[in-house]
Amino acid sequence: MKGYQQALRFAFRMAISCVLALGIGIYADDHLHTSPLFLIGLLVYAMIGNLYLLVKECGKDE
């Protein structure tokens, strides 16, 4: 059951952070007139940060 909870927590964390990154990126690009610069940058940052947290969390269990 613990693995299921970890996977669910990771999925929700990834979804929420990506949606926030998309929203903030679109807003920033709209106001600063930069095409997809902030959108792509924040999305990549959110994904890498979540993968780092996943690896850190999985390493703690072993």
TrEMBL record:
The chain crosses the membrane at residues 7-28, 34-55. Keywords: Membrane, Transmembrane, Transmembrane helix. It comes from the Bacteria. InterPro entries: ATPase_put. The keyword Transmembrane applies. The keyword Membrane applies. Pfam families: ATPase_gene1. This is AtpZ/AtpI family protein. The lineage of its organism: Bacteria, Bacillati, Bacillota, Erysipelotrichia, Erysipelotrichales.
